Batch of 3 targets.
Target 1
Amino acid sequence: LVAEPDKWTGPAFPQDIISQGMFVFNSTDGGASWSPIPVPLEQRQAGDDKQWATADNNPSSKFHGTVYAVWGANTPLWFARKLPGENGWIGAGTDSSPTAIFEDAAFAPAICVSGDGTIHIAWHVPQSEVIFYMSSSDGGKTFSDPELCVEGMGDIDEKFATPDVLDPLSSNFATFPGGTFRVMTLVSIAPIGQSGCIIAWADARDAFTRIYYRVRSDTGTWLGDDSGTPLLGKIGFPDTTEVQHFHPQLAVTPNGTIGCAFYEFGLSRDGRFRIDVRLASSAVLADGFFFLVTVTEKPWDPLVDAPFSHGPPDQPNLTFIGEYFGLDTSDEDFCVLWTDTRTGHQELWFSRVATSRVAPRRPPRLQPGLVGQLIGGVAVDGGGWVILDGYPHPIPPSGPVTEILQLLAANALIEGVSEPAARQIERMIFRTIADIAAREGRGGEVP
């Protein structure tokens, strides 16, 4: 699904791109090839932007196989659907073309489908303090009246306003202190339960932006505070830490683990503002506790190879990292896609983050209390956390504990090898472990 940016009505830019409408490409071989001629959904040449699409992949749903698309950029909220086995797209009800299901201004709507086929759509209009929500329980034929699912949130455009950004006739974008790239509050959405959903957004109500979320239960009730709940509130992430969290992306694994990936922008040790990709996840949403990890090995510099953004003449230095940031799942893993500049060019990067793994077998002749399971680590230096006999222990960078863990990992690799030479290697590994323990026992204690 593709579209160009909105039509610019101000002074012409020599290299500006003018919207030509909303089009659909189709693939029948898993994305290996695409239809050479796209299907036009709408050709208004203005406002066909900020699109999102999803499919009903739930075998038990009455609408299994239907594809849905929404879009809007300070325009009415447009909706289209493609029924299973059909090539053409239709709107809501009996409309043969996309339907404006919300006539007022909508911006960057997000859409998902829950287990029973319920369609959820949410969006935030810049310079407002609310998030709207609509749903459909009949496969997109009809929709509920729009409702406010969040009130009293903090909008990035209002908090980090650039000159004229609050002028309704202006197209200026907000930027973070220390940054030149455009940024805005965007909503993400994912299905939970049988007919519920969760939404997340970057909130600027306090000194620094943080990710907030709100949950709609299977009964249709919005839970928690009307203004949302801080994503990292239960783990004690300080509100005073001078970083900005923005562009959240939500996804849910088949077993119900919820993940939220987002950018973290702040001043690095070298004195430059850089961006890390973080991922928070929760297996028990009711507890409100999210486990937080850093996906990127090192933060990246948004000034490197930064293209200039589509924008008005009074923002000539406005750059662009794109809202090209996504999160999906594969079995029990999260799959993250983001913009990165570590190679010197602005490119898309990918990482797969595991949420669970089969517990490794206990190496032979070792008591359970001597077996370490590495649950988190620091790239390169080997530091992190290890579980010993059910209790977590911090592991310093390098040192004897890291050496022993590496040897135990090597033993796990050859444990299932039946060749006699494998037993010799096992004996060598355990002798080496004993030597390390004896050495450290003379000069220090190995925990």
Target 2
Amino acid sequence: MPRRRKRARFEQLTEFERGRIIGLREAGLSYRAVASRVQRNSSTVMRVWKQWTDECRTTRKSGSGPRNVTSARDDRHLVRMARTDRTASSRQLAALWSIATGVSLCASSIRRRLLQCGLRARTPLYRIPLTHDHRRLRLQWANQHRDWRADWQHVVFSDESRFNLWYHDGRIRVRRYAGERHLPECIIERHSGRTPGVMVWGAIAYHRRSQLLRIVGNLNSNRYIREVLQPEAVPFLQSLPGAVFQQDNARPHTARIVKSFFAAQQVQLLPWPACSPDMSPIEHVWDVIGRRLARDPRPVASADELWKHTSEICVHLTWQILPPHIQPVSSLEMSPLLVDESSDSELDIDSSLSAPSPSRRHMPQNDNPR
């Protein structure tokens, strides 16, 4: 038999339960029989029926129930405390409240007061830490490229990303009863070290894309030239008249030998501000691939199988690259671009490219600095 849900102490009757009590009483059932049906005390059934017969209403009177320990002024003070330290837990706020007022208040009361005031505990939005120079350069870059129109059709955006065999994006939930927290089927294992996976490189242009390359091991400047630029990136750029190459500021990308290689090949580079992965449309590609890998029902036991699935997903994506998100960067007055992680692309990547770039929750960040 399914377990009976434990009823909280002093839990109020719902409108459905009140209507059910009245209906059963009108059907001729006794107080005890009705109480057995709705799993309530007989005195509770009597009070509901008496309220209905005497006052013709089922709602509670305003102001009924136990009084709040805090006043409206105390609630405003509590809200100011919570807004001063947004990450403080209810227990920490209760301790601060006890120190400030000398009155003890439990953590559950703190949560109820904050919920009544509209402050709900939510998952924070993660972003890359930016210094003042980072913000200034981002804004300067956005202002310089604000009026670009057809020029974006000649830009080739490139990047690396890593996909792991096991990753958890924070959205996984376990359905369990109370006391089942330590059951094996309710536990998700998390490796403390670096998990096996594949690192890939790719480039996208307007209605076109390069081959997805697998990079084994650490990528340095020499390997970047030998395994990425010479066999794939440069031929892809040469097939696009007037192409402009974009890459981030990872160390293998900005080494002297790489700059000399670009100069020898006459590759035109697009200046890119540091710590700005959110401004590149290719971040959407990695996000879509990561989401589809997470939804893929096929088991993956090795890095080779993961690479096979990743390349298959990349082949079936459709491409239409939109300009980077310059307007949000400019309107935020040098603030980091906020990231929206709620969008979920399906078969067409075009719709996801029109939204702010999601952060890589489905795969770890590259080890190379941006």
Target 3
Amino acid sequence: MMLGLEVDIKTDKIQDDLTCRKAGWSFIQDPKNKLADTWEQLADTLRSSSFRGKPFIKGTDWQVDTCIAYLNAGIDLSKLTFAASHLSGGLPGRGTEIPYATTLSAYPLFRQAK
């Protein structure tokens, strides 16, 4: 999905200035984070890249079909990623019955407290 772009961003070095109250300010604009030109790198890569053999841009015109196919592939990937993370996490066996079992186990204790 990154079109072969390898961006060297050190995420542990990124900091946000919470004292800056300027409207529209973003940590991306902060020169210390060195992120301001990252979007230009991505745009340049996009101009020279293709998806499934079709270019994103011909001359100065966006190729809408290629862009839509790329975005749909991203949506499909996110659905597959969600399913994989959901299946690997999972619930314990018969997880929906645990609150009921806890309630039943606790009931005699409350009855004896009367």
